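Design a sequence for this backbone.
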């Protein structure tokens, strides 16, 4: 039995959760609150002091990137060809690069200043605008619909789909779904991935945040 431990929010654990689900290996989704996290930390169960962690039959794995790669391998969506796997990793790093500029906004206390800082990242030529356009260029170059031009979903798609559209879920002050309008290729990609049977099955329930992963979530964007 594999056990993923994280907070209720999608956050850093969502790609791993999805990959574990489609892997069909037995797994448990353990949700903790802040007190639960502190208890795990105090007990020494967190190798580096942070969540998420994944408990496997062989031991515990920490760090979200390591978790999602492990889970992607279990799910069988890691390309066997080393070059293709390298291109998938390249896309993962590309996404991580521009998302890193979003993180500092969480530490801005003044709400107006926070909102202004986030909106500035979407200005033409700013970091997130360029990052989303980079994703669009990959999508437009793909002959299969999948972002790494593979025959099936890879971890690059899992991260691109989950991490990108989660920004527009309404949980982040200053970020609205209408801000996706300048990226038509991304909206088309959302429709493609959200209608994949595996994605539809996993996100079939009601959720105040995960609605962004459903088909037609941005039909009025």
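Sequence:
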């Amino acid at each position: 039995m594999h056990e993923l431990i994280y907070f209720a929010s999608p956050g850093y654990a969502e790609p791993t959760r999805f990959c574990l689900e489609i892997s069909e290996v037995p797994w448990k989704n353990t949700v903790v609150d802040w007190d639960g996290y502190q208890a795990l930390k105090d007990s020494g169960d967190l190798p580096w002091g942070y969540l998420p962690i994944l408990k496997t039959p062989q031991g515990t794995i920490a760090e979200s990137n390591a978790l999602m790669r492990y889970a992607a391998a279990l799910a069988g969506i890691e390309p066997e060809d080393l070059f293709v796997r390298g291109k998938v990793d390249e896309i993962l790093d590309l996404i991580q690069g521009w998302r890193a500029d979003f993180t500092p906004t969480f530490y801005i206390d003044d709400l107006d200043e926070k909102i202004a800082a986030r909106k500035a990242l979407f200005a033409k030529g700013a970091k997130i605008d360029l990052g989303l356009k980079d994703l669009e260029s990959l999508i437009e170059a793909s002959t299969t619909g999948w972002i790494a031009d593979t025959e099936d979903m890879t971890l690059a798609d899992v991260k691109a789909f989950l991490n990108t559209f989660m920004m527009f879920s309404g949980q982040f002050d200053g970020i609205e779904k209408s801000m996706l309008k300048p990226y038509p290729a991304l909206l088309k990609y959302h429709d493609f991935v959200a209608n994949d049977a595996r994605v539809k099955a996993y996100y079939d329930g009601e959720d105040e945040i995960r609605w962004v992963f459903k088909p037609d979530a941005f039909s009025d964007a």
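The beta strands are 2-6, 27-31, 53-56, 59-62.
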